[in-house]
């Protein structure tokens, strides 16, 4: 009997084209609160959970009492896009192709609640998604390994039987810390060199490129 294998996917910037929406809505949330944070800096922080993103951009010496208001402002601004979110070409097809090859497909994301539901609607592949490790399910978000570990637990596989696909250095660091094989896509806008330095074993242009080259990818190496 073939051992189970898990294909774990980040969502924002990996399966769904949302990173720059997060940049603009976080930038506006900071602006409304009186903080001037360059969009470039916001972009590099996307992928962190809300509280970690705020600390990363404003520093540990900020007044943390304002964090809740900032997160609420971002949620409200970002929610206006929920019915317009678009998955990257090939996203659902890639998940179905992997499921068809016997992989357990699981999501590992900082999103939760209505936001995660909107993202899953955009991907439109719930028929092959076993489950999701969301921000509500872990003590610490990426780059801590908790989300990836939780996703593996859902699939019931050890780290050596899992591949994690993401688009940020936080994804790659989380995967590396958990011991899974980490694969990066460039669709989130992070440079290849940064992703490789953070632990990416392979880098693809996007999920469509990964799907097109699935037979020569790290997924094929582990079948």
Automatic annotation (TrEMBL):
Annotated keywords: Hydrolase
Gene3D superfamilies: HAD superfamily/HAD-like (3.40.50.1000), Putative phosphatase, domain 2 (1.10.150.240)
Classification via PANTHER family: BLL8046 PROTEIN, PHOSPHOGLYCOLATE PHOSPHATASE
Cross-referenced SUPFAM superfamilies: HAD-like
Highest taxon listed in the record's lineage: Bacteria
Naturally occurring in which organism (per UniProt): Streptomyces populi
Any single Gene Ontology cellular-component annotation: cytosol
Single annotated GO MF: phosphoglycolate phosphatase activity
GO biological process terms, semicolon-separated: DNA repair
UniProt xrefs under Pfam families: Hydrolase
Keyword Nucleus tagged: no
Protein name: HAD family hydrolase
